[in-house]
Specification:
The structure is a homohexamer of 179-residue chains. Chain A is built from 7 helices and 7 strands, in the order βαβαβββαβαβααα. By secondary structure, chain A is α/β, with parallel strands linked by helices. Chain A has one domain: HUPs (Rossmann fold), CATH 3.40.50.
Chain lengths: 179, 179, 179, 179, 179, 179
């Protein structure tokens, strides 16, 4: 009996404050090239502050609700397609890739739209980084600002994520944090 | 369009230093009662020390290798059946359950063989705790001691975990830590 | 012999950088409804920085000097009326109420003028929160800015607190921090 | 109007796991020489572990219940006589006295039965340390061990503290932690 | 045999993000008055962020490259003239001087151009602080901004430091962090 | 003008609680093969506890006093021969080598008598590790135990270190910590 070589997952990492249509577009690109993806949630202990209003557990739920059963990269996404893994911010960035390597199972290609995340993975351990093409500009910062000002934000996040944010009354939470 | 109510997972949490047949027996009991289980890895930042020789990423691999495709609780375990989630030790235990609640998505029943974990989940948020019956005594501490002394340890861990531990040369690592 | 049921204190929590007349107005409202109040000092390890120039020990002295022997809520405040308790900032806010519950003795109603503190106490453990009516707007941020610019700030803080701040030469400290 | 010079408190500091009759004897000696005492609770974030089973909030309640209204050092203890202040362990002991000085209001003489606490206060800032004479040996470690083994422990702690420990079912908690 | 009384070093401390000609001017003043200087690198764990792009190890190399063999304060600088020592930021500034005293060997005069560093050393342990005269204004913040905007920055740092920054491709790193 | 390629230092790392003749023997072996050595002090924030009684600053002084001007590896040791650098313990050992690489300037061969330090440096970044031959067994643990029990310890540490330990009255400190 031989251990089944597990599929080596790709890594896509973000803070997802909140998970929005730009993230979904990115995952569409990732799943077009990969069968199995670790979606890493960063800064998991940062919550209830202006730049990070959602808990890690809430962000997990947003990602899961947005992608399970959805067609991304030409295939239907199931639990066999992805894994969501939380990682806290260690605030010592030259150690950050090693921190991720220590916490997560081995991963292959790293997908990111962030130049500094890209640089860190390339400089540390020689990870292969695949750039994400931003098809249209959607910014989590702007979405949070719209929530804070009581403006429309719903068209920038996937429908199931809209439902969750409303269930949590999180736009009001963001106004409370700001106030 | 309505958000699909996700299955509420149960929670089974441990340090898995290493994952052994006692853990497998416990998961057999859990899966007999649950369809979907979060397997929480605790103390993820403790590694390369006598009581915690394995990294979180290695422990993830041990659990995955031990249960995927295996029959537990009368059903074949697939990625649809479980989720492995890491959580660091915060060393302030009256906050620990809240820490887990913040990091993980919502969970239902908590399965544990540890009296203090049981107490913490019951005292904090009134979680329903289901005790694990230890069918036979297998101790991770004793397995590590056997590794350290160069004794036979292989019969206490699942075969695929034996392979991983040998691939990592981890019995020697444990002797190096001790020496 | 039976343990005397201690009076359950109310909780009023702030950073008090510095303690000013707005805080005194708030405590006037609290003591009108409560006989015994825990005054919690938050972010106790933040000091000598622009937003938090005073140490926890200095903030303790400011509060004590401002309220002992003073008439608040229609009664003379003595050591029987209040307790000042420090709590550090844990920078993981979904755990913050649990952190306070772990550090302080049991408390009843929570008085706050902050929407997010209010929300956190209501969401965690179902604390009863009583809103503070801000009779006039006094902002610690503005007081610190006045100190930094060498403007008049003395009319915004209680007289005994003015004395302490002058004794510590703290307006100069704030300019040094900024400079 | 002149600020009333507050009474300079003495400092008596311990972990109080639990508060026992030896602590009460010590406070009897302290109050014989002092009118106003800060009772510092150390290691406040350590709880639910073998050496530190009680939370800081519980330890606060034990101290308060044990001394309020009691005659110590020849006087009846009221809220005018003492202040209970929590301080976390910073695990960098050459900074520890400075940590206490930063958190607490100014204090005068330091009472302790611990040689290393005595040394730290004398070496850092030249605090005047007054040794405590241990009238009889009572050890918190032994009390916890008695609780763990199910032996009689009640005669070593003040009656009101016995009541609290029983109300919290804390002897069982200690057995759960150990088991 | 008697222990040779070591030369008591002076202390010059900064973050050196990056080391620039203003720092070199300051060291010129220091070495005019001192034979042996500890150059303390602060905030050593802050790197790869906008305000702190360089690692502690890189900052060590910049300082060493800039001063070894150079004439400063009228003498040729060798390894006999200085010592470079790293110190992390503890984010509790009233303990910061004690933190430095604990980490470094005993030092004498403290040279700084920062009013708050000056105040902290004078208030804690009565260190003798010697002010640095800023001969011309060079700001590390502005140098980083120039790098970020792709402007000329080379004339503000010593030639050997220019070489190192180019070798590390660090101007691009700063743009990646910003982007 | 070209930057002078600095000599690449070797690394020798330990806790030095206290620095003893075994460390001196080890440095004798290191300097026989190396011209320039970084002597790294680990666990710098651990002090005034049984296993780590000395501060980082005191350990720096012990090392300096023991080796400056002494003949080691056939050459007279001067400030040109070594550099002493402190590094705190991060308690996440799979990140530890990266932590050292981030804090220190680039180093070449790593000398150690510890199997786990050896393994960590080899597994992380492929450092070349040179084993130290322990010419005779001297243990810092045993030296501390002798100090604690009031036994003779002076013959196990270099003469100048004896002087420092006596100046600091550190044997008594160790007894105070234990008592």
């Amino acid at each position: 009996m031989k251990i089944k070589t597990p599929k080596i997952p790709a890594l896509f990492i973000g803070r997802f404050q909140p998970f929005h249509l730009g993230h979904l577009d990115a995952l569409n690109q990732v799943f077009a090239q990969e069968d199995y993806v670790i979606i890493g949630i960063g800064s998991t202990e940062d919550d209830y502050v202006p730049g990070n209003p959602f808990t890690a557990g809430e962000r997990y739920q947003m990602i899961e609700a947005a992608i399970i059963g959805r067609k991304l990269g030409g295939k239907i996404i199931t639990r066999e397609s992805f894994d969501i893994l939380p990682a806290r911010n260690i605030h010592h960035y030259s150690l950050w890739v090693k921190h991720i390597e220590s916490l997560f199972p081995p991963f292959g290609r790293v997908y990111t739209g962030s130049p500094i995340v890209s640089r860190l993975f390339e400089e540390n351990g020689g990870h292969k980084v695949v750039p994400i093409t931003k098809s249209r500009h959607i910014s989590a910062t702007e979405i949070r600002q719209k929530m804070q000002r009581g403006e429309k934000w719903e068209s920038f996040v996937p429908p199931f994520v809209v439902e969750l944010i409303k269930k949590w009354n999180a736009a009001q939470r963001i106004r409370d944090i700001a106030g």
